[in-house]
Amino acid sequence: MPEDSISHLSQEQLIQGIKENQRDVMSALYLEVFPKVRSFVIQNSGDEDQAKDIFQEAFLVAWQKVKNGDFQPQNATAMQGFLFQVSKNKWLDWLRSSRFKMESSMGAISIEVADSEDEILLEERLSYLEEAFQQLGESCRELLKRFYFEKESLEELAERFGWTNQTAKNNKYRCMEKLRKLIKR
Description:
The structure is a single chain. This protein has 9 helices and no strands. By secondary structure, it is mainly α. It has a domain at 1-110: Rna Polymerase Sigma Factor, Chain: A. Helix 2 packs parallel to helix 4 (78-96) and helix 6 packs across helix 9 (165-184). The protein starts with 10 loop residues before the first helix and ends with a helix. Residues 104-117 have low confidence and may be disordered.
């Protein structure tokens, strides 16, 4: 399969490729969808690094849904559309967040480690994604799974784990940061 095209694959073949962690399928999916996400994020007050982080989170959501058998394609571009929509929603959530508003009002610059080549780092990220998720503690895996994959609200998580809403929010953030650090290693 040409590494830069998934257009000839059915959604079922694409899903199977993701289930089997086929790098060429996942790389091609990345190359097809990420430029659209990058464009959306940059056009909406973001930068390249933020787009990469948002897309990575969205890819994790999609990958987990496929692995769990929870993703059922509805049309010929379901996965691509799902990835873009999750990325878009995550970016809009970020724009509405108090952290973004504080950074914007103070004129702060987020310092992120810049990725030099998307294609090269994609392979590393994809291979570490599953491993990193498994390296998280059980509570972090459970929290992230329930929030991102089962779409439980922070209020529901707080109630389930016996936390305050703020504690649930802080724990979700800490778990995502742990996951990001594990992936970046």
